[in-house]
Write a structure and sequence with these properties.
Distance between the termini: 50 Å
Structural class: mainly alpha
Number of strands: 2
Oligomer: single chain
Strand content: under 5%
Length: 251
Amino acid sequence: MCESMCPETEILERIEFKQVNRFEMSLDPITNVLSPDPLKMIKRFTRLSGETQTKTQDIRSIKALTKTCEYIFKTLIPTQISLHGKSIFGDIYLFIFDRTKSIRQDVIRQNFKTENQLQTENFEDFLLVVNIYSQIIRFYIISSHLLRSAPTQIFDRTLNYNEIYSSLNSIHIFYKSILKNKNSTLEMKKGYIEFIEYSILLELVKSNAYSTNRLTLGHSINTFLNEISEISGNDQISNSPTIKVQLVIKY
């Protein structure tokens, strides 16, 4: 498997055909010109057809994907905002939107979407996957706020919501698998509830945008609330004021 942020074959190909994003470049100290930096290159998203054969060496391991997320969210974004201010966020969003889709694609290629795959020996990998998806979902949500007034060519609200929805569906599966394991903890329950609450908020947003039937909306939200109650048990670990306010306003 690939243990870097971008497979070597893609690095060579994109450099040759001049398909390197500016966020994957560094300033050459000699020429003072931006040049491709293989250490900054991140595998881009490629839509696969049914006949496409994925080479094992082109799929990043869970540890490599974890390292990629850490670089994106702890180094790339803070550095770019520090250098150029918040106005750079729209440009960097488009880059990260593509690269996070590629990250999720590599996770799915390793069959992490199946509950039966979780065994004691790869429990830690499931936790890493949850952490990867957690960061990505929060990025999509923050972007929907920061770029709410941006033009469509920079921020497509519908596409962004679709990615939130898809990512939330996946993280629900991951967490359900984790919580069935004997090694699960109270903190993991709290983590899952955070994303169930995001799902409730997303349902409320969708209902405003598409005038969802109140009965249908109520059924969806009650399903999520029942799940929170089941997970919480007697622990009372969910007390989100945001959710309560939204539900009061809606109903």
